[in-house]
Amino acid sequence: MTREMLQGFLFVALTIAFMVAGQVLVKLGMLEVTGKDGISLQLVGRALTNWQVLGGLACAAVASICWMLALARLELSLAYPFMGLAIVLVLVISPIFLREQVSLVRWIGVLVVCLGLWLAARK
């Protein structure tokens, strides 16, 4: 494996980490600002002034930059399947940080995703 590929995989890992952190932050922020008024401009305004939502959006921006750097070093067909790891990490983190219940069916689905990632990463 070349140095360029190693750098590419590092940027893929950073992309995934920032994506997952961003999703969790946005969810935590939205739990604070969501009210009974449904979708409204007030809700959007509250969301855009919540530090967790803003932090999550910043994570998404950093993830986008990392993704561009990854794709400058790796083939898309090699890099993209690893984005499925974000699904796995969100499922693992959601019960811990968000106190969400994760059903057995979802865990089985993640195992299927992992199998697919393993197959896609093979040459």
Describe the structure.
The protein has about 120 residues and is an all-alpha fold. The protein has one domain. Helices cover about 75% and strands about 0% of the residues. It is built from 6 helices and no strands. The protein has helices spanning about 5-35, 40-45, 50-70, 75-80, 85-95, 105-120. Helix 1 (about 5-35) packs antiparallel against helix 3 and helix 5 (about 85-95) packs antiparallel against helix 6 (about 105-120). The longest helix is centred in the first third of the chain and has 31 residues, at about 5-35. The protein is flat and about 50 Å long. The model has no long low-confidence stretch (mean pLDDT about 90).
Tags for this model:
mainly alpha
How far from one another are the termini? 13 Å
Secondary structure class reads mainly alpha
What's the total helix number? Answer: 6
Q: How many domains, in number, for the residues?
A: 1
Count of DSSP strands: 0
Specify the helix fraction band.
over 70%
Shape: flat
